[in-house]
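User: Design a sequence. Structure:
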C-alpha cells in the first residue's frame, strides 16, 4: 500500500524513458564504494545542520513519524543500467524545509552517509518535488545493501546522487564536491544530457 501523496517523477511520462547510452535491466544491481555498513537503528540519528535557524537531530523513531510520500521514478546508473518503475516511500525533502528553517545564504546541500560518503546537490535539485529520503522500495523496507535505514532518492539525476545509509544533510553557501564528484563524476549528473564525467 502506497502511503501519502503519490508523486510521479516527470521523467516517467517521457515517450522514450531510456536516456542515451543506457540499457534496461530488470535486476537491481548493488553498487557502492566499500562494504555494506551494519547500522543499529537504536543508535542511528538523522541530522540537519549548516546554514539554518535551528539545527535538528532526529532518532529513527522520530524520523519514521514524519509525514510520508510515495514517489514513482526510474533509476539511471552512470555505469549504464536503467531500472524503470520504482516505487519509493519516505519523507519528501520538502519536510526538511519545515523541520529546520533554512537561511537564504544556503545554496548547496551536502548529503552525508555512513562511513564518510558524501554527495553534493544544488538547493534547487535537492528540493525538487520528487526528491525524498526513502525508507521503502516497492513496498518493502530497504535492504541493508540498498541503503537501510535511509537513502536519498534524486530521480532526475544519475543514481550516484541517491546516497545510501544517509545520516544527515548539511546546508552550505558554497559547493563542495562529494565522494564520486571529486573522483571524476560530473558535478550535477543529468542522464538526459549524459553528464557522466566532469
Ligand atoms: N553511501 C553510499 N551511497 C551510494 C554509493 C556509495 O558508494 N556510498 N554509490 C552510489 C552509486 S555510484 C550508485 S550507482 C547507487 C547504487 O545503489 P544500489 O546499490 O541501491 O543500486 O548508490 C549510490 N549511493
Ligand atoms: Mo553508480
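Assistant: Done.
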Amino acid at each position: 500500500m502506497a502511503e501519502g501523496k503519490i508523486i510521479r517523477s516527470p521523467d516517467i511520462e517521457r515517450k522514450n524513458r531510456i536516456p542515451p547510452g543506457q540499457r534496461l535491466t530488470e535486476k537491481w544491481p548493488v553498487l557502492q564504494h566499500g562494504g555494506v555498513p551494519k547500522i543499529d537503528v537504536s543508535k542511528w540519528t538523522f541530522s540537519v545542520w549548516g546554514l539554518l535557524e535551528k539545527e535538528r537531530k532526529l532518532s529513527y523513531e522520530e524520523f519514521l513519524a514524519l509525514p510520508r510520500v510515495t514517489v514513482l521514478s526510474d533509476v539511471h546508473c552512470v555505469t549504464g543500467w536503467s531500472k524503470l518503475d520504482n516505487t519509493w516511500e519516505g519523507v519528501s525533502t520538502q519536510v526538511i524545509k519545515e523541520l529546520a528553517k533554512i537561511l537564504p545564504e544556503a545554496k548547496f546541500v551536502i548529503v552525508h552517509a555512513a562511513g564518510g560518503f558524501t554527495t553534493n546537490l544544488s538547493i534547487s535539485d535537492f528540493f525538487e518535488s520528487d526528491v525524498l529520503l526513502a525508507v521503502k522500495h516497492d513496498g518493502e523496507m530497504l535492504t541493508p545493501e540498498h541503503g537501510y535505514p535511509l537513502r536519498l532518492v534524486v530521480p532526475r539525476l544519475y543514481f550516484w546522487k541517491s546516497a545510501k545509509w544517509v545520516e544527515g544533510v548539511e546546508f552550505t553557501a558554497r559547493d563542495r564536491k562529494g565522494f564520486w564528484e571529486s573522483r571524476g563524476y560530473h558535478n550535477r549528473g543529468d542522464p538526459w544530457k549524459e553528464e557522466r564525467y566532469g
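Residues 28-33, 77, 113, 117, 146, 159-160, 162-165, 180 surround MTE (ligand 1) (CB under 6 Å). The mean pLDDT is 97.
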